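Escalated from tier 1: thiamine diphosphate holo job.
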Amino acid sequence: MTFIAKPKISYAGQPKNALGLSMHDYEGTISTLCAGCGHDSISAALIQAFYELEVAPHKVTKFSGIGCSSKTPAYFMSSAHGINAVHGRMPAVATGSNAVNKSLYCIGVSGDGDSLSIGLGQFAHALRRNLNMLYIIENNGVYGLTKGQFSASADVGTKAKKGEVNEQQPIDPVITALGLGGTFIARGFSGDKEQLVPLIKAGLKHEGFAVLDVLSPCVTFNDHEDSTKSYAHTRQNFHRATRLDFIPPAEPISAQYEEGESICVNLHGGSNVMLRKAGQEYDPTDRARAFAYIEQHQKRGEIVTGLLYVDAEREDMHTLANTIDEDLIDVAFEDLCPGSAALADLQERFR
Amino acid sequence: MEIVEKGGINDLVIKLATVNGTGSASANSLLMRAIFRMGIPVMGRNFFPSNIQGLPTWFEIRVNHRGHLSRSGRVDLMVAMNAETYRQDLADVTAGGTLVYDSTWPRGTTLVRDDVKILGVPLAGMCNEAFTGVRARILMKNIAYVGVLAALLDVDMDVLRTLLEETFASKPKLVDANLEAIDLGYRYATDHFECPLETHLTKLDKTDEHILIDGNTAAALGCVYAGATFAAWYPITPSTSLMDGFRNFCQHFRKDEDTGKNRFCIVQAEDELGAIGMVIGAGWSGARAFTATSGPGVSLMNEFLGFAYFAEVPIVLFDVQRAGPSTGMPTRTQQSDILSCAFASHGDTRHVLLFPANPAECFSLSVEAFDLAERLQTPVIVMSDLDIGMNDWMCPKLEWNDEYRPDRGKVLDAEALEKLPQFLRYQDVDGDGICHRTYPGVHPKGGYFTRGSGHNESARYTEKPDEYQQVMERLQRKFKTATALVPKPILANAAQATPWGVITIGGCDGAVREAVENLGAKGVHIDYLRIRAFPFGAEVQAFLDGHERVFVVEQNRDAQLKSLLSLELDVEKDRLVSILHYSGAPLDWPTVFTGIFEQVKKSAAA
Ligand SMILES: Cc1ncc(C[n+]2csc(CCOP(=O)(O)OP(=O)(O)O)c2C)c(N)n1
Ligand code: SF4
Ligand SMILES: [Mg+2]
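Tier 2 regenerated the structure:
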């Protein structure tokens, strides 16, 4: 196997965003995942979202753990910095990076194994810190890279490729994040780019920890009949609790949204999210009702998607830590080192 | 060989046996500082339980006019305030010594020794009469024994008064209460005993330009001065006070005057895996970042240490060592993480280690650790220990050169990147094994996706043998480069040429120096080399080559330093002779003295 850079071909007349960049400028190296793997569609959605948001790729930091899903940051935005960390420990690395350089967009890509088994603790604590990042879980119900063992998100009764049936309760990242006090909780499907792209944009603009659970079928190990994470099953049971439009700062909110049926959420930097509710009873700003709604629908075997809960007011890690407005990496050494005179004064205390 | 001498003027050991959680720490510290202010070299060591209240605690103060402050194995004056440990405390007094106890309650008649002067003072009784409130009575009982010692040792009362006034500057009432308690003890002693004792104190001028500081505080200060902006940690004895110190200094020095906001960020992580991961993220992003832990934490950090080695991320880790294995003895000292730190993590990994010998070096080496980490783009582990980290040592005042600027190593800025046709993160442009790095967000050409998986020069995933080996060989080259950059060992040659040498690291220094000096006085000459870093440089090889027999002194059971020397350098194993001490108490000089003396005698007889 060789791993080569995708040649960057610029076609005349290719559309460009306000930064003068084309979609190609947001691409990465060629994916080495299996053909048809859900994860590749998520990379494509990320490319589109960043392109449309007009974010310079080098103003983004990408983080991941270990797994097929965690390989994907190589497949989008080559000119962004990134760390393919160790298994389950990406949230820590992202925390440290964001702590000292908060002006960059911070995005994490993980798998259900990476985040819900080995990395469940780190996931929970990054959420608790309300680290300002978009945290994507590419959820396929199995450990793809180690060849198809059940992951912690496998549903009760789901059958592995070799016939084994899972009897243990799944850990649902959405329910978990709701319980832990998450401030932005969403679910999408790799096969539904129309919904996924605005979810990614809204997550990026949310000032805090944005959890985006994306059902992302593993075509090699978990796409058969009797699997609840297959393309067919997901398509069949997919239920949009909310429809979401991402509205960039400059755009007016048009009149097509009817009072009572839609909710406008103001994100930082002037962006807005318009949420159109599927049913009257859903309120994505009410944690208890969101919880009940998701539970109810999941009991019926439905996979609830959309922006499921949002609280744009809660303070993020930096506000809580009271760090300066400037990025810590930009503080001049003179403002960090107290100097010899201060040292001499201080030492009077030690006599 | 009998090496336990009698105490003398300005040359004695005071041991205070108390119960933890009773406020004895402030009384003990008051006594130690008073001796220091009298200009007499002094050091205090705390032997405390891993417990919050109610268990035995000892504080051992060594006073030595020559400035030798390692443990001596002697107790000239015991203050036995804990009935539970009285029997053992009495047994520990050196013949000819003195024991003070609280005579408020009767003491068993069997608990006597002919060769120890036993002085009873009704401390509790006197304090119960003089003070009200349970807490005050207990606290003042401790202060009262300081008064007794002041009389027995001839401590300068003006110095004690000044210290109390400084300590309680904002609470003058407390000054009076404390002085009253001291006076109670002082008067009782002068009324009932012959004061001062033969072994007492007289003013000297040997502590000017010195301070009393613990290694964790000094290391924290070093991190502030080095410009560290990010720290993450998970609480563990004996490293916790390092992060407490960093936070306190940052609160003091790093608040923006206008906004009140912090020019630092400290995260108390969910565990040590989180802590080191965060530090890696910050170091990779261009900040000076560190974490502090002890053995159990280092064990958890292993996977990430290998990652930082392979992905070449600069970080600083303080390992304040304690007695292992496993949870071990959390409040006892050891140097038993040497091998596990040198080769932390699976695969072919190795790490730069620094070995401070005292708090002054905790300060200077922590600054150097950041420079080395960034110059070499790799983790640097500062190997402190509980004895250095948590005890107050007498050190020369810390100095700072205002000309100092951090060595950020090879970093390409936007301008440099702009000029480059292509940036390859892991390309050895200069042939020293150290590549150029970039910070995120600086320039589109600077981006790379780093990883702990096999990678090539451009940081891309690879499984190709030649690409993988190229990186592995370069890392080896980089470690060779490190050998020339790390702090040099310190050599002290004997008065005359000798085939004997002794090597040690870190906190063993004081005991080894005193032993070497006393051996010299007995006609046994020995050259001394204190190693300050791993990888070992040419100086260490030369020292081994230049001596027939080399003693290796260290505080662990398995001779880890000796193993590392024989592994890394060219030396026949049988030329290295171990002197090991691993009880959990800091090394004492007689152990080193006896170990060497016996061997030298044996070989002279052979
Ligand atoms: C410490 C450690 N244990 C085990 C592994 C092996 N391992 C690699 S990927 C993986 C599971 C990945 O599953 P998931 O996160 O769901 O990713 P997917 O491949 O399904 O996208 C495991 C167990 C590892 N890399 N590190
Ligand atoms: S094994 Fe599954 S998860 Fe991994 S690349 Fe193939 S399809 Fe995707
Ligand atoms: Mg998976």
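Chain B touches chain A through 80 residues (CB under 8 Å).
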